[in-house]
Every structure is written in C-alpha cells, then in structure tokens.
Amino acid sequence: MLTARSEDALSVMHAVPSSPDPGATSLSHPRVAASLRDYLAIARADHWIKNIFVLPGTALAIGLSEHVDWSLTLIRLAMALGATCLIASANYTINEWLDAASDRHHPVKSARPAACGRMSARWVYLQWTVLAVLGLSLGWLLGRKLFLIAVTLLVMGLVYNVPPVRTKDRRYLDVLSESINNPLRFMLGWTAVVGTLLPPSSILIAYWMGGAYLMAVKRYSEYRFIGDPQRAGLYRTSFKYYTESSLLLSAIYYALSSALFLGVFLIKYKVELLLSIPFLALLFVWYLQIGMRHDSAAQKPEKLYKERAFMLYVAGIGILFTILLMVQIPALHFLVETRVISGQ
Fold first, then answer.
1. Is 214 part of any domain?
2. Is residue 14 in some structural domain?
C-alpha cells in the first residue's frame, strides 16, 4: 500500500495536464490523489448489466441443440459471463483514462477523478493488466474458441480507445466498432453451449446492427444533452462531424439492417420466431422515444432499469422468444416453402 505522501507524489507525476480551454471544468475540483474506490469505480462494475447480451447466444444455442447438459452449461455460462465482465472492465478502465482530457468538456463527466488529474498512470495500467489477465484466463479454461473470442473482445477495446487508431474519434466507425462487442458477447454465450460451430452469420449481423442502433441513439441523446455543437466536438471528436439529423438517420439505418438480417435468420432457422417481429419493432420505437428525452437513460444504458415499463417489456419479449424456440407451429411453415409459378 502507498502512503499518503507517495500517493500525492504519484498524482503530481502522472496527472493529466490541465486543459487550456476556458470551458474546461477540471480546475474547479481539488487535485487530491485518487482513492482505491476511485480506481475500482473506473472498472464500472455497475455496467456489467450490459453483458446480459451474452444470454441470447446461450438461449439460441440451447434452443437449436438436440441435447443439453444443463449442469455443465450453467457452469460454463457463469464462467463465460465472468470472463466477459472482467474484460469489459479492463476496456472501461483504459477508456476512462484515455478520455480524461475530453471528459473535462462534458457537463457531468468533468467531475471524474481521471478528468480532474487525480489518477496515476501506473495504477491504471496495472489494473487494466490484472483485469485482462483474469478475464482471458477464464476464457482459456473454457476452450480455445472461447479464448480467441475473449481476446478479440479485449483487442476491440484497444482499437476503440487507443491512438493512433482510436475508432472512437471517427464518424460512424465509432458506433460500428463499439457495437461489434454485441455479436462478440453473443458468440461467448453461444460457445458456452456449442463448442464446435459458430452461430449463423445472419444472426450475428442482426445483433451487430441492433447494437449499432442502440449506440447511435445513445450518441444522439448525448449530443442533444450537451446542446452546444462546439463543446460536443471538444468532448467527443466524432461529434465534430455529426448533427442531430445524421445521428437519427444512422440509427434508423441500423434498425432496418438489423430487422432485415433477423428476418433472414428466422426464416432459415426458426420460422416461429417471426411472430416476435411486431414486438421487436415496438421495442426499437420505444427505445428511440426514451433517447429523445432530455438527460435520457439512453446516455447511460446501465441505468435503463429505472425505465420499469420498458424493462418489463424487454423481459416479456425474452419470455416470448423462449416459448417460440420451444414450440413448433406447422401453419407458419408455408412462409418458407418455395413455389414455382408457371405461366399459362
């Protein structure tokens, strides 16, 4: 453990330089060395709820499998979730550290310890390393395929955050590179059950585009909340090239793409799930309505649990999916029959 004096020294040595921008707010916060709680906070354990995106992969693998060893599946799923959470926390850690300078231009995030220059680089990178190693170790125990998917999830966090690539700063690529974590999570859940085959490409693309839709609505909500295009561009570089309309239009594009590939998957693999399409369409519309509110929960998806009616609806769709995966409705099979119409 460091003494108070040595922690103060480290905070001075590694503090993020103060921004010269007069709108920056970091100078209003005292330069006190970050506590252990502050370092744990940037791992964002409260964001682990997002890893619920692992579960549909597991559910689909179970639904399409002829035989399931439930005890083994539950153990592997718990380990896969643990690996996903640890790697996600590693990515959150590096994200908050590298975003410190730009966070000073955000009305709320400017109060974060990293943005205030209170954190030490050596402890941040040590925390990232420990979380990454633990997450990858759990993945390794679950087999080569799951380990490689876990490595990809970690690498995408670096691609998104670390210069000179830093896709986070690039228009549209910021959304697409971040949301690719959704199909990766889906694959982790799937691989916890099926260790040999990969999921169908159609469902992976649908999942990717669905995640891009959620991320685009988040960007749209953030942009509106800041309310000043110039300050928004200082906070997030990609915002220099966005407008409210371009973000909204991109969200609609991602939603349509997701629906298209989902339809391809459902017709090919489980036609009964087509009955869920009207409910999914309402889910997309409802989420956009949430994103249009001022200081919307869409900016912080981990806070969506406060939208109780919405979350109950999501749970209802999950139950509907589970039921439709288990039943056969022969009357719907005409939708996938191929018929040739001969001329007179």
1. yes
2. no
Q: Which domain holds residue 104?
A: 38-199
Q: Same domain for 186 and 204?
A: no
Residues contacting residue 238 through CB under 8 Å, at least 6 positions apart: 168, 169, 170, 171, 174, 219
Question: Is residue 263 within 8 Å of 256, Cβ to Cβ?
Answer: no
Do 226 and 170 lie in one domain? The reply is no
Q: Are residues 62 and 134 in the same domain?
A: yes
The answer as to whether 15 is a domain residue is no
Q: Is residue 140 part of a domain?
A: yes
Q: What pLDDT tens digit does each residue of the chain (344 aa) get?
A: 334 434 443 343 334 444 334 334 444 445 678 788 889 999 999 889 889 999 999 988 888 887 888 899 999 999 999 999 999 999 999 999 999 888 888 888 888 888 888 899 999 999 999 999 999 999 999 999 999 999 999 999 999 999 999 999 999 999 999 999 999 999 999 999 887 778 999 999 999 999 999 999 999 999 999 999 999 999 999 999 999 999 999 999 999 999 999 999 988 888 888 899 999 999 999 999 999 998 888 988 878 888 999 999 999 998 998 898 888 888 887 777 766 555 55
CATH code, domain with 129: 1.10.357.140
Q: Is the pTM of this model over 0.85?
A: no
